[in-house]
Design a protein that fits this description.
It is built from 14 helices and 15 strands. The strands form 4 sheets. It has a 7-stranded mixed sheet, with helices on both faces. The protein has a 4-stranded parallel sheet with strand order 7-8-6-11, sandwiched between helices. Helix 1 packs across helix 11. The radius of gyration is 23 Å and the shape is elongated.
Amino acid sequence: MPKNVMVAQSGGPSPVINSSLRGVIEGCRAHSSSFGRILAAWHGIEGVLKEEILDISDEPEEEIRLLSTTPAAGVIGTCRYKLRADQREDFDRILEVFRAHDIGFFFYIGGNDSMDTAYKVSRLAADRSMELVATGVPKTIDNDIGDPEFRLLDHTPGYGSVARYWAYAVQNANEENAGACTSDPVLVMQVMGRRCGFIPAAARLADPERAMPLQIYMPESALTLDDMTELVNEELTRSGRCIVVVSEGFDVGSLGERYDSFGHIDYAGSDNSVMQVVISHLNRRGLRVRGRAGGNLPGMDQRDTAIYASVVDIQEAYEVGLHAVTIALRDGTGWMATILRKPGPRYEPFYDKVPLEKVANSERSFPKEWLAPSRIDVTDDFIRYARPLIGDEWPRIPLENGLQRFARFQRRFVSRRCKPYTPQALRQARH
């Protein structure tokens, strides 16, 4: 009898995470003789630990197709739960649950920490002589998985869509700023991106000819608030207005930050925002033109909005999920599916694999050579890299009674076969 499949998601959502889920499901269905039931952990590895497991084997084909235009992670859930080396009870529990439900294949969709989890589970299963194939499927809007040379992974599913979101957001913001600059000459826009500048860099895609009075502040710029004030005022002297795109990871001092279980700063839960600090600083120091600085603080919509998703990103997220199934069948355990691009002026992606241990906890920074000498712009090489990823068309989002029609799973939970269990980190948090 073929072994069952467990698929799960981890980390922050993206507009195309479910397209990868669709790829995994349809890939397994296409090889039904090799796979048993398709199960999904409800809220990632936490769902495995708690034995909260969905049977998604019999979901209608229409609902599976709709995954490609269903954003974020509401279908099977995600989590931010880090498996640390000393949490032996958690590792034992994962294998216990996998054995109880006859799991032979584990697909984990997520970022660098998730690839670390998949790698640890793969190694542990091998050490315990358990027949388990663990395969990673990359996902993160930050585009920070992989190596600086882009040999392991050219870009992550999710990045193309958030880059498209910001290209369009800056286009629209420019219209606002141009019209209201006599009273509101400076518009500050805070962008996601903790330590890596790929997302704020995408603002330049709105204006590749550099006609806008646009300044981009990334964590890698090493500029200060005083530097920013001087640079903004120089632009105000030239243009009478300025659009400031600033990363949430730009150093403005303490924000009253909080941290998630991975040790990452949770800017959404901080006491203050980079945007507000920047606005207050600019207004306190004074602008060289009449008016004040104001701001726009997009929240989770930059990573959970289907209508801004890139059709290129949707397709690639699907293909990398599909390819993960091929890798699991052909190459066995311990791999992550990856997207690379062929050399040459024409954008052409292809799909390969890399060892999980090489991408586990990897963190790629924005290349220094793509940061312009001014440190508030990016080079044309970055534009050539990122422009194909946002595509040329709007995604076709089905509507029902005027509202977006997203995938609707039945949420059929399987019967528990193990004793109740509280994950170790959750126990520790209570104390």
